[in-house]
Amino acid sequence: MIAISDGVKALLDAALVNQNPRKMVLRAYHLEAALAIVDSMPLIITVPADLAYLVAERYDLVIKPLPFAFTPFDYSLIWHARCDTSESQKWLRSVVKEECGKLIAKRIEDVGLG
User: Fewest C-beta in 10 Å: which of 1, 20, 58, 103?
Assistant: First the structure.
C-alpha cells in the first residue's frame, strides 16, 4: 500500500483498526512519485476517489471501491477574510467550485450513483 498524505493514512488506519495488519511498503508525499512507482510495481495506491478519477485515464489506473466501511469527508475552500470581497478571488473560487463539481458529477455518473 502507498499512502500519499498523513490525512488519508490516518483515515485508513482508523477504518482498518480491527483488520489484519497490512504492509505499507512506501510513503510518497507527491502523487506523481506514487504514480510512477505504482506503474512499475504491483502495489495499491490509496487516494481520495476524486483524485483517483482525475488521473485514472491518463495513467491507465483501475479504480476499485474500498473493501471496508469508510466515512467520506468533505472538501472545503478556505481563504483569508481580506480576500472575501476581492473580485479576482471570487472568480477563482467560483471556477474551482465549478470544476470540482464537474469532477464529482463525472464520478457519480461513472460509478452509476446518479
Answer: 20
